[in-house]
Amino acid sequence: MSQELFKAEILPIRQKLLFHAQRILENEFEAEDAVQEVLLKLWHIREKLPDYDNVAAFATTVTKNHCLDRLKVMKRTDPLDDSHQARAAFDNPYLQMERKNTELILKQIIEGLPPLQQAIIRMKDMEEYEVEEIAEITGTKPDAVRTNLSRARKKVREEYLKLTKV
Amino acid sequence: MKLVKKHKMTFGEADALIEKYYDGFTTVEEEKRLQAFLSQNGLPERYAAEQAIFGYFKNRKSKQAFTLRPYLKWAGSVAAVFVILVAGLQFIQPTYASYAYVNGKKITDLDQVKVQALNSLNNVSGKNNEVKQTLNDITDNQLIKQQLDVFSGSGE
To answer: Which ipTM score applies to this complex?
Structure first.
């Protein structure tokens, strides 16, 4: 599926997907993030989309499942436990040794970013998309993409400095 | 299209671009220039984090490029053709290389070469038989006598 076809077939149902996401997540911002993530997921499998008889129905199913997964993660996440776990994980001797491995550290940091930020930083810094292209794919404004991108990049730097500080 | 003159980025330019990068405003082209700047050796310590981060992304990009399926498919085909060619050449070459020299004259006719080769082999095997025969002729007693003669130094 070409970029034009993707824009013509997927983007018009964005509102419908957002509606489903809001109903499940009961949070406007979470729903917006979830839909952007789903659209990026669909973008990465755009070549396979014509194989589905009803692309709109498929996109709706993906959105619902994605929101339910997100809901599960949200319910499970206890912020206090999480921070303790993160600190403990980087304080055992084995991981202290591995800390020297830059590639591993950065991989872990990026994987720890919120999913939408993760998807955007991958597309911008590894797959070389321009911000405007990502905005088009996700049906958002470039500024919204930039905000997420900026947060992701600053977080990566901050965490990297924190973890490599001797 | 505007022709961009390549020049070495100054620290001031790099700092401005890095700030722009963290705000999410750099283009892919600017990020590539920044990447080139950061891949230099001997940069001040303050660039360490950016060097690591850009280095990581560069690595991921090249990994992605390398694992492209079409590339692997073609590489496989090329390798297969190469193997077939090498194997084929090894079978073909000995046939073309069959010849014999008889009295300094080169013979390339396959039948004649075979005849010459068989003759040579018979000669060789004949000589072996002679050696065997000679060895059989020498009895154990003769051998012992010969050796005793050598040690006693008496000769006859």
So the answer is: 0.76
